Each structure stands twice: as structure tokens, then as C-alpha cells.
Fold this protein.
Amino acid sequence: MTTETSRENRFVPRVLPWGLAAALLALYLVTLGRGITLNNLQPFAQVSGLQWQPVLTHPLYFLVTLPLKLLPSGWLPLGLNLFSAGCAVLVLALLARAVALLPHDRTRRQRELERSDYSLLTIRLAWVPVVFAVLVCGLQYAFWQSAIGGGPELLSVLLFAYVVRNLLEYRRDGREMWLYLAVLAYAAALPENWLLVLLLPGFIAALIWFMGFGFFRLRFLARAWVLSLLGISLYLLLPLLGLLRDQAAVQFWPALKFALADQKNNLVLHWQHAQDRLLVAALPSLLPLLVIGLRFKASSGDTSRLGILLTTFLFNVLHAGFLVFCAWVAWDPPFSASQFGLGPSFLILHFLAALGVGYFSGYFLLLFSERVKVRGPSRALKKRIHQAVVAAVCLFAVLIVAGLVYRNLPLVRAADGRWLRQYASALLQPLPDQPAVLLSDDPRRLYLAQAQFATRKNHPSHLPVETRLLPAADYHRLLNQRSGGFWPLPPTNQPVQVDTFTIINQLRTQAAERNVYYLHPSFGYYFEFLYPEPHGLVNRLLPYATNATLAPSLSATQVQSNLDFWKQFTEDNLPALQRAIEQPAGKSRTNFVDRLLAKLRVQPGANTEAAYVAALYSRSANTWGVELQRLDRLREAGEMFALAHRLNPLNVVAQVNEEFNRNLVAGHATAVQITASIEDQFGVYRNWDQVIGENGFFDEPTFCYEQGRVFAQQSLYRQALQQFERTRALSPNDLPSRLWLANIYLITRLPDRVLEVVKEIKSQPERFALTFPQRTDLLSFEALAHFGRGEPETARQLLHTAVTRDPTNYHLLTVSAQVYLNAGDYTNALKVFDRQLGLRPADPDVLMNKGYACLQAGAFADAVPVLTQLLDLQSTNHFARFNRALAQLQSGQLDGARADYQQLLELYPNTYQVHYGLAEVAWRQHHTNDALQYYALYLQHAPTNTAEARLVRERVRQLNPSAP
């Protein structure tokens, strides 16, 4: 008996963990992703050097994966996946050891039944809790997916598992070395996972719980502090490595601050915006630990027989509830971290839940084991009850494990990277054999393309460019190196930051010299100068013709080529992809198991990789549908919108377009319905940029109109024009879109287009019921267009005629004056201002504008009394005081100018324009010292490379020849 127990003691804690690890390793290798997955996409970019920015987070993961850099690019994803599988297997081995070391002496009944050393479980079924816990953790979907798909998450879980195992080892033999190693491992894990920062008080409490007052010994605290510093020094690793580079992209302190801020932001974000979800997700894992940690006294509460029976029953119910709860967490119920979208950092909570599964199942197996002496008249019945409880625990374990395999195995097998490889292959299909520039504002698409290139022996040396990084001069140097020199170096006068115009010019040059492709539909400054030509999933960028506002229509050949691409997709790839996103693994949900899971609030599980790829296809399908609808191919456009909506039910843009397409096909009238709450229809998306960036463009008049306004506010005038022109085509009676068109055509200096819009509106008064403000807006557009065409007399005649008809209309006079100001006709503007002042002599806006017009017309003496009148009305109008000071300076009224400038100097002591004015007054009055003083202040605060600054430096040399 003693020999058998001794063997059991050796087998469960020493042999069984490695046997289970080997079994799970075999499973992970069978289901291992062979290529790129969503989990290893970012690590692949970092390890392979595709990511330009320096790696600033997960320092330990960076360090241990350094040897993988020696692998060929095509083998690197597999290497990352194998590394994750190895981490997962070690986590499970440590979990098995930890469960075997859990003490079963928490209650009086446990202490009576388990008298082994350290109260470790030694019953014949002691292996069951270990196997149960390991399988519950290893088969949980998020853990399994991380194990076979790469990523840094499991390394932090491994360190945490090592910490837990060491604490239990210390309880077994009392060697402080276990605690020192636990402290070092926990500190080293802190830079890897921000959740461990949140759990740090719990770790310290565990140390105190295990050590008692021994924790506060100075020697232990000193050693633990040194080891903690050694562990958290990993925060310094990546910033220090950055200093070893020839040209560090990020200096040490900014890099360190970024790493610390990343964890701080995660903590603040989850605590402030997801505190409730965070606590709900953590309770099923942390609350059972309190029960495991508490040791209940033998005589507590009611000591009567009935009281003891009732207490025992309640304890058993509590432990049964925790067992079910911890096992339920592995199914990703609605309260789990996975369902809350809290991310892979929370795999630690699944580890703790599995630990609870091991303890609570062992609790019941011990309390109803063969060691229980059954006495009394109902001995046979009690014995059967005990056997039934043991069988129920074992059956529960089998059902949970089998259910996890049933639910998760098809999902895991389907998320092996096949959808990403398929998408990457389709993405690259239209690209030419010659080297091209591949642009994307989404780095993941670039990484996918490069990973796909790595699997091909012979492929063109395309240059991937992440557009978000183009403002960085260092990135241009890297592109120059990677391209063999055809991508130009940044300008010498822009050594750090490259301005937008330089970037646009470089892209236009590249588009003129070679093929440039955008890997997905997009918008922004680049599309003000280059238009997208669709080729499957990618868009070739081509320069606009001179004065062109719209891209040229696609040729019949181009349309057919794209139709063939989408036809091939719908026939070859769509059926399997749709099954994967609509019903994971293609299972029927009508069988008994699925109905039972639904009753338990367990969702079938989502194929995240397929859903991600489907969303990418959805965006491109919607964009192609918009293109077809603008070509009046309504039936085919409707099919694409429906396809985009099926692929991504959250694609609100495709949903709007699909509904509008049905109205077009049915011949229903369309109109712009302006509403203040249009963004409320965006669903989960926060703003216009996000909803279009994720889903593609709208092609419905109301949304086109609103999108045009957003583009106009962002100074994306060409793209705004395209939206307003589309609104104009879809809604023949819409006036606001035409007024916007006229305004933007004026801004972009296309007066002929302005006059076309004005002519359309004026020629059909029955369609456009113009209000008086709209008529005056139209008048200003028409007059400014004639000024822009070099026809000032025509413009003046228009304004004169309008004012003659209604000479006392103050709003009309204001609009006329503004037109003259914008056109630079200050003489006529002053005449209109005089008319306005005749009607309203004390209008401060008119006085301000008249003073400005006098300055622009060179009538400085006339500006002084006007601005003086304004200052009498508004003594705090500092801009008017500055204009009066300038007018007095230019008209020779130097004392008055100096007085105004002095007042302004008291308010704005660092304003170089005031310094210049005072210096000029002093220079003209031959006050050399004052002039030098104010010129010095000017040079201290003013821009250096201006004509005015050069004049000032020359004046200083004249006044003081010894000046440098």
C-alpha cells in the first residue's frame, strides 16, 4: 500500500505533466499554422525587419526570438508558430505540476482524508484533476489559437505559470530559492503583459500569505528588491539596443517613455472605459483563488451534528458552483474576457480558471473517494452515492473536454492562415511582372503581401510603402536603400520631417515613371493628385489630367477585367469563406449539442481570421459596386453591394448603398435629406474617416453630400467635388450641392465651372426655389468667377445692377463689398463700405473692413480716422489698434504709431510684428538705441528666412557696423 502510494506520488507530479505536455504538443503540431496568421503577423514583421519602426514593447519576446532571424523569410512564420507552441506546452506542464502541488487541507474533512506530506492529493484518481485542468486550459479556443498561431502572449503566460509553480514548490519544501526565482520571473514578465501590473498587489499578497512574517525579513526584502530591479530592467533593453544603431530612429528616453506609456495607456483604457467588463471577466478566475487560499478551522460555527451536515452541504455546493464556473469560463461564455474583446493579454485568467478546475475537481474526488469509511444502516446507499459523485466528476470532465474539442477543433483547423494566404494571393494577382511601388495606410496588408512574396522563388522586387510613415525623413532613407536608389532621398532642408507637398511630388514622380498601386480603397491628400484605377483588390494610381476634377471613365476592357475577377472570387472562394463566417466550420446548429450549448449561453465561436479577411473583401466589393453604379450598371452594382453586406454584416456603407440601389432599379425619386444625426447611422464606427476607411465609399445622395462637406472641411477639394458632382447627378433638384460646387470651383480657380453651375441654376428657376441669401451667394459666385476670368467690368456690372435694384439692402451691400475685397478691387469696396456706413454709421464690422481696405489701397491717412472711430466703440479690439498703428506709421504720424505699438507691446511682449513697428518708428525718428533694441527683439522672435528679416539685419549693420 505504501509502495503504491509512493509510486502514485511520483507519477502524478513528476511524470504526468510531461506526458500531458507531449500529448498536447502532438495536437498543436497537427493543427499548427504553417504560414502567416493573424497572431504572428506583427511578430513576423518585427523579426523579419519589415517593420521600419524600432521594436519598443515585449523586450523578452524580442530577445528570445532573435535566433529566428537566421531562418529564411519563408520559414519565419512557421518558426514563430513553433515557438508559441513550445511556450504553450511548457505552460501546460507547469499547470499540471501546480495542480498536483495544490494542498487539499482547506477543510476539516479534507484534512481527515488526506494525511500525506504537504496534503498533496494521493488518491487513486489523483491524476484526473491534473488531466482535467490541463485539457480545459489547452483546449480553450483563445489559448489553442495562440499556441498554434504565433504571437508574444504565451511567453508572459509561461512566466506567470512559472511563478505559480514556484510558490507551490516553496510551500512543499520551504526553500526560499523558489520565491527568489518567482520574484525574478514576475518582474521580467511585467514588460510583457500590462495585466500583470494590475495583478502585482495579488502577487505580493501571495508572498505574504506563504511566508507570513518571514516576508518582512530585511534579507529577503533586499534580495527580492534586487531581483525585481533585475527583472524590470528589461524595460531598458530595447531603448538601449536602439542606441547601438548607426542612426537611432528613436532616442533612449523617448523609447523608454513610449514603452511605459503603452502599458499605462492599456491600464487606463481598460480601467476607465472597460472597468465593469474587466471585473466581471476577472472574478471567475480570481474569486476561486480566495477559496483555495483560505484554510478553515476544524471547529467553526455550529458544532452540532445537524450544523456540521448543513455546513458541509453548503461547502460542497459552493465548491461545485466554482467547479462549474471555472470550467464554463473555458467555453467563452458572455462574461468571459474573450467575449468582452479584452484581448490575448487575458490568457492569464484562463490559466487561473484551469487551476481552479484542478483544485475543485480534486476536492470532490477526495471527499467521495475510496478512503471514506461508510458506516450505519444506509451503508450501501451511501457508498453508491459516493461512487455516483466520483463518476459524475469524471463524466463532467469528459463532457467538458469533449465539448471543447467539438466546438474548437474545427475553428482552429480553419484558422490556420488559409484565408490570409488566399487573400494575399488575390491581392497580388493583378500586379505586373515589373517592379512596382505598393502603397498602403494599413501595414497589415503590406506584411501579408511581403509574406506572400517570401513563399515565391521568383517574384518582382516590388517596393512596399507605408503611407503613414512618409512624413518621417528616416523612412525615406530606408526606402531609398530598399529600392536600390529609385526612391529619392529626403530633401536636405528637411532632415527630420518631410512636408506634405514634397511627399505628393515624389508620389506623382513615381506614378509617372513606374506602376504605383494602392493595396486597398482609400482617400486623403494623395488622392487629390492621383486617381485610383481599380484592378481587382488593388488600385493603380495615375495622375489627373490638367484641370480635370473627375477620374476618366473605365474602358470596357477594364470593366470586364474587374468583373471577371469578382466572378472568379464568387465561384472559387466565396462559398467556403461565407460558410466560415456565417457558421463556423460549416456545422449545423440544429443538433442536440449545439442546442445545449445555446442554452448554456455558449456561442458557436467566431472564425476571426475568416471574418477579418471577409471584411477586407467587403470593403473592396462595396467600392467596386460604387464604380459600377456610377457607370449605370445597376444590376451588377446591386450584386456587389449585397456581396459586401453578406461578407461583413457591420458594413453600414454597403447596407445603405444596397438599399439605394434597389430604389434606383425601381425608378424611385431620390433627394438629399439633410439631418443633424446622420452620423448616428454609423453603428460601431465613430466618425466619417473610420466608417469609410473600414467599409468603402457611399453612393447615396444624402451621404455623398455629407461626405463632400467633410472632405471640403479637410481641404480635400477634388474629392469633395467628386462627391458633390455625384450628388448633383443623383439628385437633379438639389440646390445646396450645386452651391458647394460653385464655391469649391472658385477655391480651386476653375471659374468656367463656376459659371456652368450658376447657369444651370439660373436657367431653371422652377426647379430651384432660391431664397434671398442663396441668390446673393449665387451673385457673389458669378461675380468672382468673372473676376477670375479677367472680366472685371462684367463682374462690376453684375454687382452694380443688383445694388441699384435694392440700394438699401444691407446684406446685399455686405456681399458686394466682400466680393470686391476678395477680388482685390479696394476702390469699389470702399464705395460700398461708405454706403453701408450711411445706413449704419457705427457698424464695427464695416469700420474694420473699411480700415483694412484703406490699408490695402495705400490710403493710410484715410484709414486712421476710420480705425479711431472703431476703437472708440471697441477699445479692446487689438487687431484694429495694430492696423491703426500701421496706418499711422505709413502716413508719418509716428507719435501716434508709437503709442499704439507700446500698448500692444504690454499685451503681446513676444510679438515680432510689434517689435518691428516700434523699431521702424525709432529708426525714422533717429532714435538709434531704441531702434537697435527693438530690432534685436524682432530677430529673437521672428522667422529668419524672410525678406523682412534680411532688411532688419541690414538696418542693424547700418546702425551698428560692429554688429555680427
Summary: The CA atoms of residues 197 and 438 lie 40 Å apart. The longest strand covers residues 530-535. The chain has a mean pLDDT of 88. DSSP finds 43 helices and five strands in the chain.
